[in-house]
Amino acid sequence: MYQALYRKYRPRVFEDVVGQEHITTTLKNQVKEGKCAHAYLFTGSRGTGKTTCSKILAKAVNCLRPRDGDPCGECELCTGIDDGAVLDVVEIDAASNNGVDNIRELREEANFTPVKAGYRVYIIDEAHMLSVGAFNALLKIMEEPPAHVIFILATTEVHKVPATIVSRCQRFDFRRIPSELIAGRLQAVAEQEGIALEEDAGLFIARLADGGMRDALSILDLCSSYSAHVDVATVVAASGLADSEQIYQLVEALAQRDSSRAFSLIDELHQGSSDFERVCDQLITALRGCMMIKAVPGAQELVVTTKENYERLSHISEKMSMEDILATMEILQETLGKLSRASSKRTEFEMAVVKIALRKKKGALPAQEGSVPEETLQLLPEMEKRLERLEAMMAHPSRLEASPPSLSPKPLRQEPKEADIVPEHMEQMQELSCWEQVMERLKGTNPALHGALKDSKAYVKGDIVLIDAPDELFVKLIRQSDYTKESLRDALRAQTGKKYRLGPYKKTGEEKAKEDPLKMLEQMAQKAGIDVSVTGQ
């Protein structure tokens, strides 16, 4: 029966583990000197060697003829552990055995001495999936285990493991393996398997694997089934990137605000049964490439794509400002979260395209003298509505008179929400002098809120702080998001030592008059030499 490459070439000794020398050297010395800990915690991204090192360590502490800290791989115990015949080494999948009863059984078994081996070794894979009750059941025996027991916990999400468990383990953090090391390992495997692997293709596979050796070997396995000669084109076709041409065309259409072309491509993707969640994710990845190219000189190492596509992304990034790229990615990220719940994914995705196409393009050429700027054109519909209301009021002056008091019962008075509270004399509020320091604290605790508060000011009076932010998103957040208010309140408390009530700064009538669109239009007309007069009945 055929054996997958990642299983066939799984390391048998510590020296064969690629890219984790800081861990394998320590474990090897502990075995050699007889100083092994009673509990280990291996954490890191997938495919970096956590389970592999767990099995090598289990063999090394039980090997009958160890070789300088490594297992011999030939004795009865080494071969038995590899075959799963030695019951003293137990591998538990916490994803499917995560209950308190499973851990209670483990505790009962752990008290018995090993049958064949020197140590009973429990390897708990995906340890973060254990329930709270299971962790509590495991805690006591991990703190004071029998002398013949070793626990090895492996996880990709160490933040979900309780601190009480972490503190009782020796923690080892597995790093993502550099692309060059992965490519070198792939070349060695390809030579042994008789696969013609081009150097560029090996490096491309390594970048697609994102630091995971197992993923890289799986991609090579897939490509070798597609063709005996593996080049970049083979990797693109075999790994499911064959439709990248449509993705790049769609990115170009979004960059040019060409909604007609974008909808045509969406229809093609729909007819081809494309999953719009995957399409959205690929668009975000492509735009990330544009972002990195624009932000970092020589970003080839940071962008996972072919040489031709990299040049294409470079060409697209020249047409977009960094603000446009980030805003487009933000809309797509928001859409990606909605697609899984949408009844019509195509419609949800098309709505995102419309939002992107209707965004005001940054970095546009300045308006010619005498022409109306784009900002004013966007205000015209609102101006028309206001003019219609004014004309109607002047045509029927009686409507301006105060209406008679209503006989209906008055509604119950409601207490104002925190975000609506305004001091009696707002003009007496003073600008908060430490606002820049508060913003610096927010940058680390809530980057999204920090972005929404760009170019903002804060005013204080008593226990009230009002924030004047040009971004309308902040007003929505401060009214609807408890997390936003708590983040801002915590940052203020950390800086000033006081707890404040929060709200958006409401501009005075004089400030609003300065922003009156009709007044703005009148001033622009006067600058253009047009005589403007106000008439009325």
Kindly list the characteristics that best describe this protein.
24 helices; four-stranded mixed β-sheet; globular; 537 residues; alpha/beta; five-stranded parallel β-sheet; 52% helix
Give an overview in words.
Mean pLDDT is 80; it is low at 361-377 and 400-416. The chain is built from 24 helices and eleven strands. Strands 2-3-4-1-5 form a five-stranded parallel beta sheet, covered by helices on one side. The chain is α/β, with parallel strands linked by helices and 537 residues long. β3, α6 and β4 (149-155) form a beta-alpha-beta unit.
Give a topology summary:
Blueprint: H1 5-8, H2 21-33, E1 39-44, H3 50-62, H4 76-83, E2 89-93, H5 100-110, E3 120-125, H6 132-143, E4 149-155, H7 163-166, E5 170-174, H8 179-193, E6 196-197, H9 199-208, H10 213-226, E7 229-230, H11 232-238, H12 244-255, H13 259-271, H14 276-295, H15 307-319, H16 322-339, H17 345-358, H18 374-395, E8 430-431, H19 435-445, H20 447-452, E9 457-461, E10 464-468, H21 472-480, H22 482-496, E11 501-504, H23 509-514, H24 517-527
Parallel strand pairs: 1-4, 1-5, 2-3, 3-4, 6-7, 10-11
Antiparallel strand pairs: 8-9, 9-10
Helix pairs in contact: 2-3, 3-4, 5-6, 8-9, 9-10, 9-11, 12-13, 12-14, 12-15, 13-17, 14-15, 14-16, 16-17, 18-24, 19-22
